[in-house]
């Protein structure tokens, strides 16, 4: 599993988690403030598409994950 795939998995997981915890219709609802995490992940994905800078990618490289 390469860095790009791991980044997509992390982003998808955090978006689903924050929506589950932040939307009132969810049985896991905690607070609408969890939606800020959705915004953060989306904004990070958006900016990384233009700048090619992704903090998670840098962390994974330092941990020795291969770029396949």
Write up this protein:
Helix 1 (3-22) packs antiparallel against helix 2. This protein is mainly α and 68 residues long. It has helices at residues 3-22, 35-51, 55-62.
**Overall number of structural domains:** 1
Structural class: mainly alpha
Proportion of residues in β-strands: under 5%
Helix content: 55-70%
Low-confidence stretches: none
Sheet with most strands? none
Tally the beta strands: 0
Average of per-residue pLDDT values: 96
Order of helices and strands: HHH
Shape: elongated
Separation of termini?
Answer: 7 Å
Number of helices: 3
Summarize the structure.
This protein has helices at 3-22, 35-51, 55-62. The chain is an all-alpha fold and 68 residues long. It has one domain.
Question: What is the strand and helix layout of this fold?
Answer:
Layout (H helix, E strand, L loop, with lengths): L2 H20 L12 H17 L3 H8 L6
Helix pairs in contact: 1-2
Tags for this entry?
mainly alpha; 68 residues; elongated
């Amino acid at each position: 599993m390469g860095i790009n795939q791991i980044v997509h998995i992390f982003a998808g997981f955090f978006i689903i988690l924050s929506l589950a915890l932040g939307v009132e219709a969810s049985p896991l609802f905690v607070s609408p403030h969890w939606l800020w995490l959705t915004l953060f992940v989306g904004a990070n994905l958006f900016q990384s598409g233009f700048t090619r800078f992704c903090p998670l990618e840098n962390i994974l490289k330092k941990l020795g994950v291969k770029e396949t």
